Amino acid sequence: MHHPVFSKAPSFVTRLPCTQHAPPARTGTLFHCVYTLASSRLSTSNGCPLTHARFFSSGRMISSHRDGATTGSDPFHYTSGRWLHRDTLEREARTVRFDFDALRSRVVALCPGANSIISYSKKEGGFNRVFIFHTDNAKRVVARLPFSVAGPQSLTTNSEVATIKFIQAKTSIPIPKILEWSDDPSNTIGSEYIIMEHAPGVSLHEKWQSMDVSDQIKCIRAIFEKLRELVDLDFQAYGSLYFADTPYIAAQKLPFDQEFAIGPHCGAIYWDCNVGQPRYFHDVHPNRGPWPNLAAYCNGLIDNGIARLPPADLSPRRPRYHGSVQTHRRLLEQGHSVLSKMAMDSRIQKAAVPVIFHPDLHARNIFVSAEDPTTISAIIDWQSSGIQPAFWHADEIPDFAQPIPDHQNEDRTEPKSEACAKVFNACIQFLAPKLATARLIDESLLRPFRYSYRTWADGAVAFHEELIQTALHWDELGFTEPCPFTLPSPDELARHQQDYKLFEAKQQLKHLLPRLLNTESDGWIPPEQWEATQSAHREAFAGILQEVLATQQPDDDEPIRNEDDLRDIWPFDLPV
């Protein structure tokens, strides 16, 4: 899940956002290096130069769904792309061993009048393998099998189906009918699965660019007229929805009604399912919810931060700002005191009401009528939906509502996208008041919550900076009781500031490099571009290193001074 920065940050909040937040400003040595490479026409796989105009044209060069359909392809292995970081592990995590013939037989059995499957296509996103089957009686059926990175075994599938059934029972949001599902990987197919009807209509992604702005505006309003029903629902706890009779959550669930219960949150941040991000429970018990109140939810964030810390500091080389296991543990304990105090504030309480919302509201997950694209025919992909504080959802901006720079003038926004962004904001304000309330809160009241669970991924310096800034502006933020965080000494603060500049440089590089190489933020590349992108990657590293080493007299506060510094912050596997 992405969590963009809020638009209401006060003037003193000028700190660089973390990896999940908005991109850094285009300043400093790294930006100059990458800009130089882009302007010097570093070639991409199709031979097109990456001039600066193309380089700054869009923040999303490739869809996060990464889905390409293929017919008759390998049903078991991931074939849709590769990664510049942990490529082998990423692809292995998306291998699914199952009985493909048994799956085909189940699809035929679920389509009355069908005798066989005449064709199928495979589509792969980051978390699921999807097969679209065409039967001999003209039926289209979708079968989805989750990858191990999608979330915890069984829980993820059970919760998605329960969430869909709940939404279908409580709202008029159109979601394709589920024909059959299983959360037991030992079934005859050999994998968890969901088999459902194909969404009617066409993907909004296919229609969006050809729609005039008035239809785009009507479409956004129609989407939120549906989703307002979801946002208006009331919940008394945080977690994920499950069927009430699910046996393996019996000891953990909070009753909701006769059919549904709130159980552990199945989001990947709470589980050992992300590639290269193991969880450890030698110092803390698993804390995955459900959480009856905000204080308990905050405990879950801190406990999951602790669960990322390995038993001993035996990790490979990391930047100097990363910090030892002991540093992280101490920082998380201090952070727990701060979050506990802040969670009692009435403003934060109002911004944290429990809300369930679509986890990936983008054009590819919305289907519209082929004849009238302002009519919403389906909203799909509810995997990993959870009941979260409203502020966790509030500033998610779908791709169809993101302002796009004008190609003729980088300082201006393309008019159609600007109009859609304004309508989207108005829809949030008037049709989703719980989210609107969360959007209005001072962003600096929420930043410590966003960083707390991921210190081991980001480095201790990021969360430390949030705690320092919170303590410095504690009175400004409206708190009357003393801040429980003690500011570092002047010498400690000076060292922290140097470390934070290196952290800023890494975040800047993580933003700029994928755009230069035309990849996803995690380094995902379509397979046909692999060799060319690898070559461009090597050229980028060599070019940026040359720029760094060519700086004869770097400023005193320049964080990158040599090859070791650059290697420490390079976001992808170093080219060989």
Describe this structure in words.
The structure is a single chain. This protein is an alpha+beta fold and 576 residues long. It contains 19 helices and 18 strands. The radius of gyration is 24 Å and the shape is globular. The longest helix has 28 residues, at 490-517. The protein has a domain at 28-58 and 490-569. A hairpin with a 4-residue loop joins strand 10 and strand 11 (260-263). The chain has helices spanning 28-39, 52-55, 87-92, 100-109, 155-170, 204-207, 213-231, 294-306, 325-342, 346-351, 390-394, 415-431, 433-440, 447-451, 455-458, 460-472, 490-517, 530-550, 563-569; strands spanning 70-71, 82-83, 117-124, 128-135, 140-146, 178-182, 193-197, 202-203, 240-243, 254-255, 260-263, 354-356, 366-368, 376-379, 387-389, 405-406, 409-413, 524-525. Helix 9 (325-342) packs parallel to helix 16 (460-472). The strands form six sheets. It has a six-stranded antiparallel sheet. Strands 8-13-14 form a three-stranded antiparallel sheet. Strands 9-11-10 form a three-stranded antiparallel sheet.
Question: How do the strands and helices of this protein lay out in sequence?
Answer:
Layout: H1 28-39, H2 52-55, E1 70-71, E2 82-83, H3 87-92, H4 100-109, E3 117-124, E4 128-135, E5 140-146, H5 155-170, E6 178-182, E7 193-197, E8 202-203, H6 204-207, H7 213-231, E9 240-243, E10 254-255, E11 260-263, H8 294-306, H9 325-342, H10 346-351, E12 354-356, E13 366-368, E14 376-379, E15 387-389, H11 390-394, E16 405-406, E17 409-413, H12 415-431, H13 433-440, H14 447-451, H15 455-458, H16 460-472, H17 490-517, E18 524-525, H18 530-550, H19 563-569
Antiparallel strand pairs: 1-3, 2-18, 3-4, 4-5, 5-7, 6-7, 8-13, 9-11, 10-11, 12-15, 13-14, 16-17
Helix pairs in contact: 1-17, 1-18, 7-12, 8-9, 9-16, 12-13, 16-17
